[in-house]
Write a structure and sequence with these properties.
single chain, alpha/beta, Rossmann fold, 5-stranded parallel β-sheet, 4-stranded parallel β-sheet, 13 helices, 12 strands
């Protein structure tokens, strides 16, 4: 799609992404005018104003900082065999883009603070114009100044491919609705993403007869995220294994365990983004205050991936050092496998 946006035509999320990729700022502005009713003729930075709970923002950020700093992976160096030394070192990404859904300051904290702990040099934030002032104010408290009042699939495309105003990033983070997650999956062919996080999900696992009010509190809290949120209740009776099988089949974003029998499953649950144990561990405590990350896998992704952690903002580089004597020891293996695979140039490197 390379023509200016019009309101009387059908389009897909892929159309939006491709248009921003091809036409840059012009497309970004036009899609924002269509979706968010903006009037600016160029992409605009978010301007901080209004009151936000400064102490709460800083307290939440400190908890996230403390927990994620403890996750820093160790570099490894090993002499695998005489004269052959391997090193695997962790290094921060150079730049990341963070998508923050409308007004969700907590989602900014969950991605921006780990990026800072990892040592990322450039952090770009995009958030819908409605709610952008609060996000910009929180970003300022965290020391982040590149915050754009741009939402939706067009924001994901801008961060992935760059425009005249916004330089592209190396990886994109942050939860979002259907359009945002579709856009993230589309651009993942060209730029890394964290995971498609959203819509919200919860499985409440409760002993039969457990306080229904607490169960419904947990369900209601997640339903606040939007009409596409999903909530399930699993009752634990005599057949605890059947309950575990049911929980695992949901592979949900959040699992809340309520009651002695339900809580006994905590260390056996494999398919969940985050598990909350007991009546005093409500899921919103993790959303806001514990320091655990609330950017979690949804849509069954918890079968294969976990929630956001410090390592997502880093990557590894492997360094290999081989001495003359070491290469002599490796030569027979190199030559034999090179011959097997018909790679004569590979074989030749074994003797220097």
């Amino acid at each position: 799609m390379s023509k200016p946006v019009t309101t009387n035509r059908d389009f897909s999320i892929e159309d939006v992404v491709n248009d921003v990729r091809e036409r840059g700022d012009a497309a970004l502005v036009e899609w924002s005018q269509l979706f968010d009713k903006t009037t600016a003729d160029k992409p605009e930075r978010a301007v901080a104003y209004g009151d936000i709970p400064t102490a709460a923002v800083l307290d939440a950020a400190q908890s996230v900082r403390t927990w994620h700093a403890a996750q820093r992976p160790a570099d490894v160096m090993l002499e695998v065999s005489p004269g052959v030394t391997l090193e695997r070192r962790w290094t921060p990404l150079r730049s990341v883009g963070i998508y923050v859904p409308k007004g969700l300051v907590s989602s900014l904290i969950m991605s921006a603070v780990p990026a800072q702990v990892a040592g990322v040099e450039r952090i770009v934030v995009c958030t819908p114009p409605n709610g952008a002032p609060a996000v910009a104010a929180a970003a300022a408290l965290l020391g982040i100044d590149e915050v754009w009042a741009i939402g939706g699939a067009q924001a994901i495309a801008a961060m992935a491919y760059g425009t005249e105003s916004i330089a592209p990033v190396d990886k994109i983070f942050g939860p979002g609705g259907g359009a945002v997650n579709t856009a993230k999956l589309l651009v993942s062919r060209d730029v890394a993403i964290d995971l498609p996080a959203g819509p919200s999900e919860i499985v409440v696992v409760a002993d039969i007869g457990y306080d229904e009010e607490i169960i419904q509190q947990e369900i209601a809290a997640q339903m606040e995220h939007g009409p596409d949120s999903r909530g399930f209740i699993v009752r634990v009776g005599d057949d605890i294994e059947a309950a575990l099988t049911q929980v695992e089949s949901y592979a949900a974003e959040h699992v809340a365990l309520l009651g002695e029998r339900a809580e006994s499953l905590a260390n056996r649950i494999r398919n969940a983004g985050a598990v909350f144990v007991g009546p005093y561990s409500p899921v919103p405590a993790g959303d806001y205050a514990t320091g655990g990350n609330h950017v979690l896998p949804t849509g069954g992704w918890s079968k294969s991936t976990g929630g956001l952690g410090l390592e997502a903002f880093m990557k590894t580089v492997t360094v290999q050092r081989v001495t003359k004597e070491g290469l002599e020891r490796l030569a027979p293996t190199i030559e034999a496998l090179a011959e097997l695979e018909d790679m004569p140039a590979h074989k030749k490197t074994a003797r220097r």
